[in-house]
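Exercise 7.
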Amino acid sequence: MTQPTDCKREEFIENNIGLAHSCANRFKGRGIEYDDLFQAACFGLVKAYDAFDADRGVMFSTYAVPVILGEVKQLFRDGGTVKVSRALKDIARKANAERERIISSGGEEPSVTELAQMVGCGVEMLTEAICAARAPISLTVSDDEGVRELEISVMAEDERVAELLSLKDAVEKLEETEKTILFERYLKNSTQSRTASLLNTTQVQISRKEKRIIEKLKVLLK
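Solution. The predicted structure, written as tokens, is:
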């Protein structure tokens, strides 16, 4: 088994995710869903990584297992509710600090990928940290018309899932060209000009269609 000094943080966590599964499996069938057990175990794995001292002369697994089990046991004491770990709070705090530092120095809005690299974690882990910390998320799109930013508050998990499912259903009702525009503009962060080139049309047409798509989604989501 690798030690924390052998590879990067995210890679190490992924390589040792089996420890989280192993610890979570010990508590299966005791009244808490496995996904919640595993999430608590993952919190413990990250916590163990951050606190591990290789100079103590012990294997990481020897140190980590009690820490992971401690997080899972805490889950039972909390009545089955997964609390936000200090590790995730710390990631969210660092990411927000980096974003503020870049913007205050006159830099451009950093992407989620760039922020993840700055704080030393994966995109998925940063996204989870932001959601868990209930921090506001800024969605930024740069195009020929300038920069647009939409700030939203993260909802509780059940509300967020319901909203995402509603949005998914609404998107499925769009025409294929509309789906492509939505994908290029808001997921790939392509400019209107690049999207227009892809669809063999003009930037003005894309701008008009995009506005109609947004209005269409608003109606479908009511």
